[in-house]
Structure formats: structure tokens, C-alpha cells
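Intended use. Records like the one below are meant for learning the mapping from a protein sequence to its folded structure. Do not use them to infer anything beyond what is encoded.
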Amino acid sequence: MSKVENNEKKKKFRNFLYKLINKKFLVFLFFFAVSGVFWLAISLREPMEREILIPVQIANVPPNVMLINDGIDTLRVMVRDNGYNLMGYYFDNKPPITVDFGVYHKGDGHGVVPASEVVKLIKSRMESSTQVLTVKPEKIDIYYNYGDYKKVPVEMNGNVAADARSFIVSKFVSPDSVTIYATSDELKQISSIKTQYFNITGVIDHEKKKIPLQKINGVKCLPHEVTLDVRADVLTEGSVEVPIEAVGVPEDKVLRTLPSSVRIKFATGANLLNHMDVSQFTVVVNYDEIAGNETANYLKLQLTQYPSSVKNPVLSIGSVKYLVEDKRGYVQKTE
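Structure written out for the chain above:
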């Protein structure tokens, strides 16, 4: 037998085995699928528990009424039934539960659909075999008003930190105020709205983040979230030479310091350092320290003003000698 004939027989044998294995595999898949369908059919006949979401819609709201609860637009309902019915709840269009505003409002800005009524509304759209186990929330609160509103500032409520080599230059929210809708009594009590707590760390350059506002029952905020804008800069050292000013000096006196200026060292952002100006700093001595005390030889330096972007400012010296002169030229006190 030639080598070519031998290879041809091997090839035919391999093809036969391949077809045989594939055929068995397809048969296996068929029976596996049939058994899976059979198992599923049996399982769906058994009772089981599942949570379903049911939308809530408030109807028949008069045109002069504004709903102000951002609230309950969905109920989380735990139900028990056979699998067939539960599958139907998952795949239907879930028409919302309709709450008639006219039935539950009392004219005081707050209406309540009690738990027993909520359960009745839920059961009205379900199969008779379905058991309602739990409903969250149990009742439906309806908050509304007749157009009362006011504008209040937004308070930042959280922590912002730069990475180890940077520091925070600025942080603010936009918009910085929002319009709130509530009853007249509630509007009188609210002076500001806080953001939800946030914790932002490791800021290197510029970061923006949407922050929701805290929710208050019976209060609607527009908008309901703000944008937090945080800017950081690379930390670097800088210094400026600042003239010393005298304060509290009588009109007939002149107070001179020795030296007349002082160097201030500080940390700030690399970009901000290029725009730093001496006029942004104020260092003073107070004449009141030596008034009636001619034995004092030094005046204490006080840094009373510096930019908010400056961190840890330090004066190169803490006190200076001084000279007090009468405006007519007579030296009253030296050293």
C-alpha cells in the first residue's frame, strides 16, 4: 500500500469520527434543551417570591396646584405567586398605579394615601392568586402648594483635598442658589439648602462633579443638583518684601520703623505666584503698644492681610525697632 493511499484512509477515518462525534453532540444538546424546558415548566408552577417595581402616577391635579414632592414615583412590591404570573409582571408594560389627587388632598399642602389603600391599588392590577407581602414605601405622601416659592443659597457640605504636591485654590458650586417650592410655613423656616455630603480627594488640576442637593420632605428644589468646581495648583514657595505700616499714630506724631519693610515667606500655587502682588499683603505696627510706655524698645509686627491663596505665611522677623518724631521734627523716642 502506497503512502498516498494510507494517508487517504486516515483522512476518511478522521472525517467519520468527526461526523459521529458531532451527531452525538447535537443529540446531547437536543435532549439537554428538552430537559431544561421541562425543568423550567415544573419550576414555574411552584410558588416563589420576587420584588417588582410599580410606577405611581398622580392624576386630576388642578392647574393652580404644583406637586412639590420629588418623591414617590415607584413602589417596590414583594409578591408571592407561581412563576408564570411573576414572569407576566416582569414582561408587561407595567401601567402605573393612578392616585386621584382630589380624593386625598386636604388643602393644607399634604395628602396621604394610607398603606391599606396602597395595597388595594396594587392588587387591582394583579392576578387574584398573587399575594402582596411588602410594599416600600408603605404609604404615599403627596406634597403640594399653590405656587409659593423663594430663592435660597446653596451650602457646600463635604470635603475637598488636593494631592500631596498640590493645594486647593478655589471651590464653588454653580448655581450658587436654587428655587425652592414648599408651603408658606416651610419657606419661612428654610434659609439655605445643603448639598449631599461629598468627599473628593487627590485633586491635581481642575475637577467638576455633579452633586445632588439634600432632599427635604415637602420641598422641591429647582434645579435638584449643582456642579462643584474645584481647582488645584502645584504647591511652591514664594516670598515678597512688604513695607511696614504704622497704625494708631496720633496726628502730631510720625512713627518710623527700622527696618521699614519685612520679607514674608509663604506657600502658594505655581501659577498664582506669577500674579502675586505686594499690595495684597499688609504688615503693621500699632502705636498703642508704646503709648505711655517709653521704655519699650521694639514693636511687634502683625500680618493683617494676605491673599486667600497663600498658605502658612511667615514673617522673617517678629518685631522691629522704631523711631517716633514730632511733626515739627523733634525726636521723641528712639530705639
